Amino acid sequence: MDFSAYSMKLRAAVRLGALLSASPDAIVANSHAGVVAHRAIGYGNPTFEVVENGFDLARFTPVASFEARAEAKRRLGLSGDDFTCVTVARADPMKDYATLIALAARLPHIRFVAVGAGTEALEGPSNFFGLGRRRDVPDILHAADLLVSASRYGEGMPNAIGEAMASAVPVVATDCGDSRRMLVDAFDGAAPAGVVTPIGDVESLRAAVQSLWADPERGRALGRAGRSRAESRYSVRANVEAWGRIYQRVMWG
User: Fold this and answer.
1) Cα dihedral 253/250/232/178 (nearest 10)
2) Which residues of 112-138 are buried (b: 16+ CB within 10 A; e: fewer)?
3) Residues 117-126: pLDDT tens digits?
4) Answer CATH for 66-233 from 3.30.450.20, 3.40.50.2000, 3.40.50.410, 2.40.50.1020
5) What letter does residue 235 receive in the DSSP assignment?
6) 11: CB partners within 8 A, 6+ apart
7) Which pTM does this prediction carry?
8) 108 by DSSP, 3-state: which?
């Protein structure tokens, strides 16, 4: 985290949490990156568990057909043929919209759609527009050929990436938080579900997005792999079972 970008209240809460961190029977983070980050700022509990986020696989689903994706694009005011990159993130320094907007400027043949609080006020090139806060993210993901996450810091296990994976949307993400673990690291021989690039590197992002624009079949393969990973590792059931194991250990040893 870059705490200088946030309020004194947040800094005070983090310090207080570190001071009290030895008291609970366990501390649970939603990411491996979160454990490392909290250890670094003084969270000293010897029992630090990770419970990865679970995603509603009945709500976030693959789009039914090419025609359905084209129709979802038209509902956003796009052409059904527009290659569309979606970002789901509030306007916040950690999400690094400056890099995303610079990326859009380098790829004028691709449309960029931002969803999240404050995105409606962002200024960018003509191929970039913000929708603000929305409640229909599953439908918007049906319009996406690609999800892009340009986060610079502060990520744990990004919900937007998990929701895109559940929706069989390929992902290009910076190497922030657990993004690499979610998308690329091999679990039981799982195929990659996206491409991970260095943080703040507009050219690497551009090359990754351009390569998937030029090779749509590769993008579809990454999307299918993402759905498979979500089903095997990131379901609500897997999340609940992980919490159940922690409760059993804490309550009954």
Assistant:
1) -130
2) bbbbbebbeebebeebbbbbeeeeebb
3) 999 999 999 9
4) 3.40.50.2000
5) B
6) 3
7) 0.94
8) coil
